[in-house]
Amino acid sequence: MTKRSTNKNSDYSAQSIQVLKGLEAVRRRPGMYVGGTDTKALHHLVYEIVDNSIDEALAGRCDRIEVTINADSSVKVTDNGIGIPVDKHPSENVSALQVVMTMLHAGGKFDESAYKVSGGLHGVGAAAVNALSQWMEVTVKRDGGVYKQRYEKGIPVADVKKIARVPKSDKETGTTTEFKFDTTIFEDDVDYRFESLANRFREMAFVTRGVFITIRDERPKLPREMSFYFEGGLKSFVRYVNRNRKAIHEPIYAQKEVDDVDVEVAIQYTDGIATSEYAFANTIHTPDGGSHLTGLRTAITRVINHYARKNAFLKEKDSNFTSDDTREGLTAVVSIKHPDPQFESQTKVKLMNAEVSGIVSSVASEALGDFLEENPRDARRIIERCLTASRARRAARKARELVLRKSALESLTLPGKLADCSERDPSKSELYIVEGDSAGGSAKQGRDRHFQAILPLRGKILNTERARLDRILNNNEVKALISALGVGIGESFDIGNLRYGRVIIMTDADVDGSHIRTLLLTFFFRYMPTLIENGHLYIAQPPLYRIKEGKTVHYTYTEAENAKLLKKIQKSKKKYELQRYKGLGEMNPDQLWDTTMDPSIRTLLQVAIEDAVMADRTFDMLMGSEVGPRRRFITTHANEVRNLDV
């Protein structure tokens, strides 16, 4: 029995209570404000500043936003909004600009007279970015002048200064915010990804019609620029997502204001299998959905079931379509603008307003119901899709139950080809999915049996982008993978049952290996995205070359690294042997452990979904049934691939 300590001289006293003043709390706990210190959090800094500019657009005071990644990885955001007020704040006795940039929960979003609708609700965004920056400079053009203030780690270097006068004929106003993230706070080697920022701003342009957004990258490695402007709004968004799919009807669109909540929805069915849903609240993407997405799903299921029954597609004895049945092949976007949205956290991943569900449901129900009544041919195509999906779902359930029943009868829950580990704590164990029996044999001999499990796969698994779940469950390799992971699939999926904390794809460094890796990634993205979202999926990095220099052995992992080392050895005029690995099977167990499996030496790439829209389109293009988009992609990037360091 453990005794409770009775030490009266405990270290816990009034002196232990810390009061973090100003922005120090943000610097101490960045995860509470921007979600962490990784690349995703780094991008969030930019989004917080751009969201303020978007709020100006929603207020009708801005139609142009420019974002520039400078050569030193600092970022500049410029808009032509009204400009942050610079006059003295009545209670704080300093410039309102300084209040906004240095005090938490300060801003113009609390008063509806300034912003009827906005995404920045807590008065935290700009101040948090300031706190996490080495330096920040804000320049404001308004009230006949140009004003500027500089901050270092959130602290003003000087008062707000008027640096120029503006002629009366110059009516333009706006705000420019320039900042450099603090490298002592964020993880090593993080930097901005142009593609991630561009994809986010493309979404913003879709859901904020009439705003011209430009992103410019001035870093010397790959300077580039993109601009976005969409008159079609969400209809353009749906068409963009479905560029590589065959749509079976024109987008269904509705926009209506109910109880001060502006609702905009666009939906379109395709001949594919994947479901693509995107939800926005006050132009902010809410990746975890929320009440607005729930309302849309409810409306689609209810209206389609009503139409199918009314027109005898569903007989009296037939059960209703499920939500999954009515959403197969669907691309849907919902965007709401609410005067007082409630988000799950500062990073705004989920909308919590309960009343929004009913409002969105009524708007979407009316639009979809009218479309089905007015377009019977398209309605029939949609209902037939749902019927096919329903039959496939029932077949998948039977196949899943058969697999479970067979396992129970045989008292066998794991595939025979799996070489399991002895560790039973998932957080300490890992599963290597290995290409081929030969590589699987080397991996089994070279692994640490305590915590490393090996599952060899024979050949290429089924392309799950083109197959429904019932067919997938009849594929032996996929069944072995599902069984080994323990999480189930479809309706029975439960991440809590995951048997391994790290799931590592290990394939050959050739074209076939890349194809197998892509097939596996497609499966995980479409049927187990939670595995990726929770950070469990990795890609192993086996070496390309082995160079023996005397008794010393070197391994190189890219063509560039190999060329550099060879040049150095040749310069020393030493004899060497060069071996190019064609596959993992050519490596003996010790070599595989030393280069690819030893946790103290190996390199693993963690798979992440930074942008769902782009990932969705890419998998659809590379693995879908449409050949044209894939051919264009290959042709366009052929030269890049030839010069790529792999």
What order do the helices and strands come in, and which of them pair?
Elements: H1 24-28, H2 31-34, H3 39-58, E1 64-69, E2 75-79, H4 96-102, H5 125-131, E3 133-142, E4 145-152, E5 155-156, E6 161-165, E7 174-181, H6 194-207, E8 212-217, E9 224-228, H7 234-241, E10 252-258, E11 261-269, E12 276-281, E13 284-285, H8 291-310, H9 323-327, E14 330-337, H10 354-374, H11 376-410, E15 430-435, H12 437-446, E16 452-457, H13 469-472, H14 476-485, E17 502-506, H15 511-527, H16 529-533, E18 537-540, E19 545-549, E20 552-556, H17 559-572, E21 577-580, H18 589-597, E22 604-606, H19 612-623, H20 627-642
What does this structure look like?
By secondary structure, the chain is an alpha+beta fold. It folds into four domains: 24-228, Histidine kinase-like ATPase, C-terminal domain (Heat Shock Protein 90, 2-Layer Sandwich), CATH 3.30.565.10; 234-393, 2-Layer Sandwich (Ribosomal Protein S5, domain 2), CATH 3.30.230.10; 413-542 and 581-609, Rossmann fold (3-Layer(aba) Sandwich); 612-646, no CATH class. Helices cover 38% and strands 19% of the residues. The protein is built from 20 helices and 22 strands. Strands 1, 2, 3, 4, 5, 6, 7, 8 and 9 form a nine-stranded mixed beta sheet that branches. The longest helix has 35 residues, at 376-410. The chain is globular and about 80 Å long. The N and C termini lie far apart (58 Å).
